[in-house]
Amino acid sequence: xxxxxxxxxxxxxxxxxxxxxxxxxxxxxxxxxxxxxxxxxxxxxxxxxxxxxxxxxxxxxxxxxxxxxxxxxxxxxxxxxxxxxxxxxxxxxxxxxxxxxxxxxxxxxxxxxxxxxxxxxxxxxxxxxxxxxxxxxxxxxxxxxxxxxxxxxxxxxxxxxxxxxxxxxxxxxxxxxxxxxxxxxxxxxxxxxxxxxxxxxxxxxxxxxxxxxxxxxxxxxxxxxxxxxxxxxxxxxxxxxxxxxxxxxxxxxxxxxxxxxxxxxxxxxxxxxxxxxxxxxxxxxxxxxxxxxxxxxxxxxxxxxxxxxxxxxxxxxxxxxxxxxxxxxxxxx
Length: 333
Ligand code: IMP
Ligand code: MG
Hints:
Blueprint: E1 3-8, H1 16-26, E2 31-34, E3 43-46, E4 51-54, E5 67-70, E6 75-76, H2 78-87, E7 94-97, E8 101-102, H3 105-111, H4 114-120, H5 127-135, E9 152-153, H6 155-164, E10 169-172, H7 196-203, E11 212-218, E12 220-223, H8 235-241, E13 255-258, H9 261-271, E14 275-279, H10 281-284, H11 299-312, E15 316-320, E16 328-330
Parallel strand pairs: 1-10, 1-11, 2-5, 2-10, 5-7, 6-8, 7-9, 11-14, 14-15
Antiparallel strand pairs: 3-4, 12-13, 15-16
Helix pairs in contact: 3-5
The structure holds inosinic acid and magnesium ion.
């Protein structure tokens, strides 16, 4: 295994951050590199002592031997980035590409009102307006920002040379397949393609250099903001099931529905998944909480997993059984 790409299979918030942190420690990649839209992403990671909420920094930062990088396809908010580098002790091992786009105050202002805010329910992070300006060729780039100078590297060159030396590289996606500007529930989507192909383009990884694609699904579906959600539960039903969640970036209550095989099948196709990760199995089957071996989980949880493997014709290799990075069943080994 050399390059592993991890993407979301539903509408974001599948628990990618926790899976990526686990892989960043377990597989000890030389580089964890983030693609995706921008600081509209929110990943929650818990190492048992502390809960980290990241919006800009790749979720692999808990492995201190790993370099964390942001690919040129991503737009960055330097204030958010500097704060996370400081708060999470990533100084000296966090890098951005000179071609990352820069979010400025004006983008935040444009994102906090009008159509994007009211109709689409955008996160207000400035990501969409910055990407619009990039398409207009008027967005500032990271290499033009003096304060970022010490963080700038050629990310595609770093990624490809690590792979050429047989090192592991972990590619971190953000959002989820059905928030993709191309493949999602347009117009209720984010401002970029966020399927595996788009994420790889963001970091400069060509299609022939991808070894594994892990699509992450939560055991149920959630969606924050507006847009269609098939078989959406009422707030009460979601609360009764324990599926009521609140957004990392916006604090908004997430809408919820049962695991959707039609969406999942399409996500497997669009991302050319080689593996599936299922998160929050412990929410559906509380007896799974904290388990790290497949043998230990109850029969009904095993049949839930088996059904997913059969219907999606893809192995479920990594299963999340709790909020901590080690609450994982890893069936790759
Ligand atoms: P924007 O990307 O901030 O413009 O928001 C567009 C839509 O995508 C809204 O419905 C957001 O709630 C949703 N969205 C954007 N990023 C994420 C994410 O990381 N997780 C979940 N939903 C997201
Ligand atoms: Mg999130």
